[in-house]
Amino acid sequence: MAVTYEHASARFRSIYAKLLRYYPDPYRERFGESMEQTFNDLCKERQKAGDELFSFVLWVFVETSLAILKERIIFMITQNKNVVRIALMVGLILLIPLALTVLNPNAHLNGGKGGGWDWAPGDFLAMGVLLFGTGLAIDFTMRKLANPVHRVVAIVATVSVLFLIWVELAVDGVTQALEFLF
Amino acid sequence: MATNNTNQPLTPAVFHILLALSSGERHGYGIMKQVETDSHGKVTMGPGTLYGSLKRMLDAGLVRESDKRIDPEMDDERRIYYQITGIGTEALASELERYKRIVSLAQERQLYPKTYGIQP
Known about the structure:
Chain A is mainly α.
């Protein structure tokens, strides 16, 4: 039993060390070793007390993953000027549906529900989040992948996911396609 | 860089870390254990929250790194210890003063729950 516990603990520590690699480089260099050590201490404490390990480790992994996400966002905003450029570009793109909605002469049709191009505030928010997320993903791809072929594949995949989500949100296109196929 | 305004309210994590460090230098795990003891087990901090808070506290000058040294009770690994700074002590004092004022106000308005035994 003790051997199994030790083995599981060592495995979790190894996975945790890998998880810490997702922190921004300066953060990881500064705190990575200490975080690993703290995680080891926590595992040893559970082991000494004979407490169950898995649920505790799961909690720590989720907690650390959320912290990584937070640090990544902070790092991107402070270090990467592209985030501001992406946000500006998203704003400019959203001006198109805004203009089409404002200038739509049929907005009064269908009992006030409008006809033609008529976006609600929620539509702008959803599209803004989608476009911004796509922009960040493409920016990340461009910085992390050196191979041009890999870059193109990753960008095409990202844009395809954006398109599928948009089609699904707009007209349930993916659901309908799946129902038609299966 | 010490940029923190000591009159600003502190987040719960920062408050508990400062409180833990007010009684002496500690390493990460030591801070976690002290926070747990201080809060009677009510506050459990994960490594992500702890080190994220420590980073911002170091940047704000509330705490500083002490020398690396060995904790004889743990193992032979070298650990980074953290200590509260003058700015950190002031920030903690301001926060405690704020809590004190709120408790006084609650007593004045007879808002204390009966479980505290102070209900008139």
